[in-house]
Design a protein that fits this description.
The complex is a heterodimer of chains A (486) and B (157). Chain A is mainly α. Chain A is built from 24 helices and four strands. In chain A, α2 runs antiparallel to α4 and α4 packs parallel to α20. Chain B is an alpha+beta fold. Chain B is built from four helices and five strands; from the N terminus they run αββαααβββ. The longest helix of chain B has 27 residues. The chains are: A mainly alpha (486), B alpha+beta (157). At the A-B interface, α1, α6, β4, α10 and α12 of A face α1, α2, α3 and α4 of B.
């Protein structure tokens, strides 16, 4: 194998791309519903919009809240259904296009991590197919490694440093490498592409900080809550004889160093599964700890960057943690899915025997479609009923097309059940969060500022319906009514 | 250390033949684009446009800025200049984009103002301070609605 082939096509523990894709899809669905929907009211406000690309500005109609909400709802549903049922290349490509459009349509959404997710989704399109049952059927415990026999020191070297080092190395090898797990591997060039991309991102984030203002700590001190949160440390450092300026310089430089090391870590990790060296695994584990530290700090200082850290931590955990740890974690996490998959397979076989397949498929599809339409109307957000109708119609069309073959019916039945679960989670997410309250109060605030008082009042009255405890907008409503002479 | 008795099962093999060549091209293209696009922020003059550059919380981003738009309108045969109430004309999120001097947003905004009845010209000024408190020269753009093109009268970089 050439260097190129070894780097891109070498074996990867199959669990890694599998878990990465599942985790990203679930996070994406919840991110879309919980964080993106609330800001939909700004789209098309005042009749002004600038798309990210000139050609899109010319091609698309003015984005309005209904369009944005519709796109985001479908993104979430599609992501979650694929996470539950298994991903098709067409489905992933559709998700990538739809999600990318959700931020491309307007420069109102200039979150860099949304662009990052578009690139991640692009890579996910080409991930190798896998399902939990197949993965765990091919994995298991192989015979104990000779390394464990090395942990017994020789009689002459019992208390020597060399014996202690041998014991440590063997123990670490077992702890970090696992006790001889036979884990299924796969060729996953797009997974490696994704890791390379993450490494490039860290590299460039480090490069962006190579300027005097960052190096001296001015920028770091002024972002989020960094100044306030790290002030006690700064005081402690002063007591130890370090000046405030030196402290902030040190903190700022540490961030750059962490990002450089993370970039390197994502290069090295490409070989950790292939080469099975304890030092490589330790390096990956250290990189993971660094990622944990950096992103935990980012969350603590509240940089208002959505769930960027959670995505990065998920990627770090899947790519950098020992495969044996992931195997155990994945075994527990996928147990319900594997159980359900086995049950569904048996049920599908019974249907085929009783020739009930087409009827069951149609009933499930109609039920899922009806539930989707009902939920869309009940969400009380512009664009939701229309998006729900589109999803329902697609499901029914697929039901008619898929009913002809047993495999198609089986797939469609699982998709229908997954749609029901996804719609249920959508409902729970939106109704148990401040999404609708935020949407209507932001709309009300903007309309008030632009002197559209009647529309502002309508928006605030709706927001009041969903206002959490202590967040009532009664005062604003009363003021608007006075201004309108009501 | 002796090899383990059983080799792990493999789920998928690498692509072969034509598929392999296409995949190699895709990989190379992807990596090149991911390296080159952010690099353009450092090598080309992209102004305040840091999109796709992975410049999170750069010094440019952390500048504290304010914007002022002076509009000249034709009212009862006279030309009257007044400051535009930005938060009444635009959603606050767009005002933030103007403060960040997103050039395509500023340009489109000025042209959009020219579409409003009576507007004959507009001058956009953005003033900023660096995180260390030092002032940055103001960015200033002007549009004449009859001509339609935008002049750069001052640059803050």
């Amino acid at each position: 194998m050439s260097v190129w082939e070894r780097h891109w096509y070498g074996d990867v523990i199959a669990l890694r791309p599998y878990l990465l894709r599942k985790g990203v899809l679930v996070l994406l669905a919840l991110d879309a519903w919980l964080l993106m929907l609330g800001h939909a009211g700004r789209y098309g406000a005042g009749g002004f919009n600038v798309a990210h690309f000139l050609w899109l500005d010319a091609a698309q109609p003015l984005p309005v809240p209904g369009l944005y909400i519709g796109v985001v709802l479908v993104v979430g549903l599609l992501a979650l259904v694929m996470a539950l049922v298994g991903e098709s290349r067409t489905g992933m490509a559709a998700l990538w296009l739809l999600y990318t459009y959700s931020w491309c349509m307007s420069m109102l959404d200039s979150y860099q991590h949304h662009y990052l997710l578009s690139v991640v989704l692009f890579c996910l399109v080409f991930f190798p197919p896998a399902d939990a049952s197949g993965l765990y059927a091919l994995s298991g415990i192989r015979s104990r490694r000779p390394a464990q026999r090395c942990s017994q020191p020789t009689a002459t070297a019992t208390w020597s440093l060399r014996a202690a080092a041998q014991r440590c190395s063997a123990t670490l090898g077992i702890v970090v490498g696992g006790r001889g797990w036979r884990l299924a591997t796969t060729s996953a060039w797009s997974y490696r592409m994704l890791l390379t991309f993450v490494g490039i991102v860290y590299g460039y984030t480090a490069l962006a900080k190579v300027d005097d203002t960052w190096r001296k700590g001015h920028t770091f001190r002024s972002i989020g809550d960094a100044g306030r949160l790290l002030e006690p440390l700064s005081v402690h450092a002063r007591e130890l004889g370090m000046s405030s300026e030196s402290f902030w310089e040190l903190m700022a430089s540490s961030v750059v160093l962490a990002e450089v090391l993370l970039a390197l870590g994502y290069v090295v990790v490409a070989y950790s599964d292939q080469l099975e060296r304890a030092w490589l695994r330790l390096w990956c584990l250290a990189t993971w700890l660094l990622a944990l530290g950096l992103h935990a700090m980012i969350e603590l200082i509240d940089l208002s960057i959505g769930w960027f850290s959670y995505y990065m931590l998920w990627a770090a955990s899947v790519a950098l943690l020992p495969a044996s740890w992931l195997h155990r974690l994945g075994m527990a996490a996928t147990w319900p899915a594997r159980l359900l998959q086995a049950g569904l397979t048996r049920w599908e076989q019974e249907q085929t025997a009783r020739r009930e397949g087409p009827l069951v498929t149609l009933v499930l599809a109609c039920g899922a479609a009806a539930l989707t339409v009902f939920a869309g109307r009940a969400l009380d957000l512009p664009g939701a009923p229309q998006a729900a109708l589109v999803v329902a119609v697609l499901l029914l069309v697929r039901a008619v097309v898929s009913a002809r073959s047993a495999a198609g019916r089986a797939r469609l039945q699982r998709e229908a059940l997954a749609t029901v679960a996804a719609v249920g989670l959508l409902w729970l997410s939106v109704t148990n969060s401040d999404v609708r309250y935020d949407y209507y109060r932001f709309v009300g605030g903007d309309l008030s500022r632009r002197d559209r008082l009647e529309d502002a009042l309508s928006a605030y009255l709706k927001a009041e319906r969903y206002a959490p405890e202590g967040e009532s907008r009664k005062d604003k409503i009363a003021r608007l009514k006075r201004q309108l002479g009501i | 250390m002796p090899k383990a008795a059983e080799e792990p099962a493999r789920l998928a093999d690498p692509p072969q033949g034509r598929a392999r060549r296409l995949t190699d091209v895709l990989i190379a293209g992807f990596v090149l684009v991911q390296l080159a696009l952010p690099l353009s922020c450092y090598l080309a003059d992209r102004g305040s446009d840091e999109r796709f550059c992975w410049r999170m919380f750069s010094t440019l981003r952390m500048r504290s800025c304010s914007v002022l738009v002076l509009e000249t309108r034709s009212e009862s045969g006279e030309r009257v200049s007044r400051e535009l109430a930005l938060y009444k004309a635009l959603h606050s999120a767009w005002v933030s984009s103007l403060k960040r001097f997103r050039r395509n947003v500023v340009d489109k905004f000025l042209r959009w103002r020219c579409e409003q009845p009576g507007t004959t010209s507009a001058v956009f000024t953005r003033s900023c301070r660096e995180p260390d408190g030092s002032e940055v020269p103001a960015d200033r753009l002007a549009i004449d609605c009859t001509e339609g093109w935008i002049r750069v009268m001052g640059s803050g970089r």
